[in-house]
Amino acid sequence: MCRFKGKSLSPHTLTLKLILNLLLSCDHTNFSAGYSGVLLFLKGMRFAEGETKISPETVRNLQLKWEFYAGRDITATPAIVDGTLYFPSWNGYVYAVNALDGSLIWNLDLKELGLNASGFVSNVNTMVATATPTIADDLVIIGICGPALVIAVERSSGKLVWSTKLDSHALVVIMMSGTYHKGYFYVGTSSLEEELSIEQCCTFRGSFVKLDARSEPTHPDECIEPDIHSESILALDLDTGKIKWYLQIGGYDVWFCACRNLSTLGCLPGPSLDADFGEAPMMLNVFVNGTKLNIVVAVQKSGFAWALDRDNGTLIWSTVSKLDLNFTKHPSFNLDNSYMYF
């Protein structure tokens, strides 16, 4: 995430532009196709499952219907439920906006939580959320970028219901969009230790957390075996968090900006690629030679893609697009899962 250091946020106010005005004979008020978070259910899909009106055939007829001006950049995909958009901005606010006309329903100033920002992004001196909020029935659950705080607010008003800090490390962040399932919220932590010098790095321990969506956690943090699951794909039991299987892919456990220049004293031999998985995996059902396979696909920031049997972790295939430092993003698939794009 070296790209976040010195992030150039444009000085002018940016706009959330929702293109909804289809020039078709359709019901413009139907927002039943909810998009409650980046991850659709537990499959890792990133689309509005019930949306049928926007297609390659209709997209040419779209026109701008309204604009909403936030204080700074908007980089997260909005969560859309029951005609309301929920999204954060880099100005430190979370917004609820009417999807029909762009009018403000409520906003939440994260500074009012009473915590100080981590200060790891240049030109941003306030607490920010960068991931898509998660809708959990009547709650909106939001991960704060730094410090690593998870908060739940009322969907109707933005009023704080509960908050909990997941890690006290100085550079810990929550940048992934969490998943809500059967009353629980699942989210992971990461850090920006790659911004430190070789001498200062590395003390952070990553974690994946299950929270009761209705209240703060009551169980202490548990640490599994150290130092054996770096650069790995793991399958966890949803109820207990126990590891069911894992496959360690390989690559340097720690990647930091200082070693982009391989001549820096103390850096390991190159190429210096970020082997982390920066996005959630996708679960797919595919047919190979007439046999149905349940697979999970994940892509490393370095450009390597991996497909595993999700029942036991056996490697099905792997490929690489091109060697990259740390910018490969979430994979996409066509409707019949025959092609992958990343």
Automatic annotation (TrEMBL):
Pfam families (alphabetical): PQQ (PF01011), PQQ_2 (PF13360)
The Pyrrolo-quinoline quinone repeat domain, residue ranges: 66-191, 227-319
Cofactor(s) essential for the protein: pyrroloquinoline quinone
Residues making up the signal peptide according to the UniProt record: 1-25
Keyword terms: Oxidoreductase, Signal
MF term (GO), any: oxidoreductase activity
TM stretches of this protein: none
Alphabetical list of InterPro entries matching this protein: PQQ_b-propeller_rpt (IPR018391), PQQ_rpt_dom (IPR002372), Quinoprotein_ADH-like_sf (IPR011047)
Keyword Membrane: no
SUPFAM superfamilies, per database record: Quinoprotein alcohol dehydrogenase-like
SMART domains per UniProt: PQQ (SM00564)
Family: Belongs to the bacterial PQQ dehydrogenase family.
Protein name (Swiss-Prot/TrEMBL): Pyrrolo-quinoline quinone repeat domain-containing protein
Biological classification of the source: Eukaryota, Viridiplantae, Streptophyta, Embryophyta, Tracheophyta
